[in-house]
Amino acid sequence: MAFLTVYFASGFFGAAFNSLAIWALPNHFDAYVVGASAGVMGLLAVYAMLFPMRELTYFVYFFPITIRAQYLFWLALLFSIYGTIRPYGHVADAAHLGGLLMGVGLCALGT
């Protein structure tokens, strides 16, 4: 149940945060929020706070890249902040940032 709570709360807050960024930042593009990336970012934040030293392995093409959960969180946070302030491509980085912040908040509350 906590998994779904974090996932849907992060997704909702990410969409709301993206709408706020579109309204508040003049250079932010006006786009729809479609997808589940804000919810996934919230789950990443909770995982990184609960298990910061666990190693995660990603495959980029055929090459495995191993990174600790806390470093992946900080990397995602920095990219999201940069993309919110200075948008690049058509990615809802503000939604990612909102999902990360909601995940941190929910983990701090103990949900």
Number of helices: 4
Number of strands: 2
Helix content: 55-70%
Proportion of strand residues = 5-15%
CA gyration radius, whole angstroms: 14 Å
- The dominant shape is globular
Strand order of the largest sheet: 1-2
Spans of at least 5 consecutive residues with low confidence: none
* Pattern of helices and strands: HHEEHH
Termini Cα gap: 10 Å
The secondary-structure class comes to: mainly alpha
- Could you describe the largest sheet, including whether it forms a barrel? 2 strands, antiparallel
Integer average pLDDT? 90
Question: What would you note in describing this structure?
Answer:
By secondary structure, the protein is mostly helical. It is built from four helices and two strands. The protein has helices at 2-24, 37-50, 69-85, 93-109, and strands at residues 55-60, 63-68. Strands 1-2 form a two-stranded antiparallel sheet. Strand 1 (55-60) and strand 2 form a beta hairpin. Helix 1 (2-24) packs across helix 4 and helix 2 (37-50) packs parallel to helix 4 (93-109). The termini are close together. The model has no long low-confidence stretch (mean pLDDT 90).
